[in-house]
Amino acid sequence: MAQINPSILSADFARLADEAKAVQGADWLHVDVMDNHFVPNLTLGVPVVESLSRATKTPLDCHLMIEDPDRWAPQYVEAGAGSVTFHVEAAAAPVRLAREIRAKGARASMALKPATPIEPYEDLLPELDMLLIMTVEPGFGGQSFLDIMLPKIRRTRELISKHGLELWLQIDGGVSASTIERCAEAGADVFVAGSAVYGAHDPAEAVRTLRSLAEQATALAPWACAH
C-alpha cells in the first residue's frame, strides 16, 4: 500500500502544529533536518521535533541531511521520531547506526543522493527498514523531479525483491500528481510530498489524491504483480 509523507519543509513554520493537523490522514509527517554543512541550508532540529511529536498523532519521519549522523541520529529517536533516515554519504558506520536506531525503538532508514549508486550497499539492506532515494539534490524544497532516477528506483526494487525483504522504498523530491505514478510503477511505495500537499487548497485532499494515483499505478506495476 502506498504511503504519503507530507514534508513540513513546505509548511508554514509559524503554524507547525496547525499544519500537522491539516494533513490528518497522512501516513507519516516528513521532517527535513539540515545543518548548513552537509547541505547548504539550515532548518530545524531536536527541540522542534520534540514539540511536533507532542502536537500531532501522525508519526514523524525524520530525514537527517547532516554531518555526523552517527552522533546525532539517536537523539531524534529520543525526541519522538518513529523513523530516522541518515545519509550513507555522511555516516561513518552505517550498519552500527542502523542497529542503534532500531535498538532505540525507531525504524532505521538510509538515504542516497542522486549520484550515489545503490549497488555497493546491497549487503546493508537487511539492516534497514526503509531506503530513501533522493529524486532531487538534497538541501532545498520545490525542485523539479529528476527523471533519471527512475532506473535507480527500479534497480533498488529488484534488489529488495531478490533478497525477499520487507523494506520500504521511499522517494523524496519533486513528487506531485504528475510524477508519482511513474515512481510507483518503478517500485517506490513511500512518497515524500512537500509543495504538492502544502501548496494545495486542501492539503488533506491532496494526500488522498496522491495516494490514489500511487496505488492505481502500483496495482499495474510488474514488481507488485510479481509478489
UniProtKB/TrEMBL annotation:
Binds 1 divalent metal cation per subunit. Pathway: Carbohydrate degradation. It comes from the Bacteria. One of its GO terms (molecular function) is D-ribulose-phosphate 3-epimerase activity. PROSITE patterns: RIBUL_P_3_EPIMER_1, RIBUL_P_3_EPIMER_2. The keyword Ribonucleoprotein does not apply. The keyword Mitochondrion does not apply. A divalent metal cation binds at residues 30, 32, 63, 172. Substrate binds at residues 7, 63, 139-142, 172-174, 194-195. Keywords: Carbohydrate metabolism, Isomerase, Metal-binding. Its cofactor is Co(2+); a divalent metal cation; Mn(2+); Zn(2+). The active site is at 32 (proton acceptor), 172 (proton donor). It catalyses: D-ribulose 5-phosphate = D-xylulose 5-phosphate. Its EC number is 5.1.3.1. Belongs to the ribulose-phosphate 3-epimerase family. Catalyzes the reversible epimerization of D-ribulose 5-phosphate to D-xylulose 5-phosphate. PANTHER family: RIBULOSE-5-PHOSPHATE-3-EPIMERASE. This is Ribulose-phosphate 3-epimerase. The lineage of its organism: Bacteria, Bacillati, Actinomycetota, Actinomycetes, Kitasatosporales.
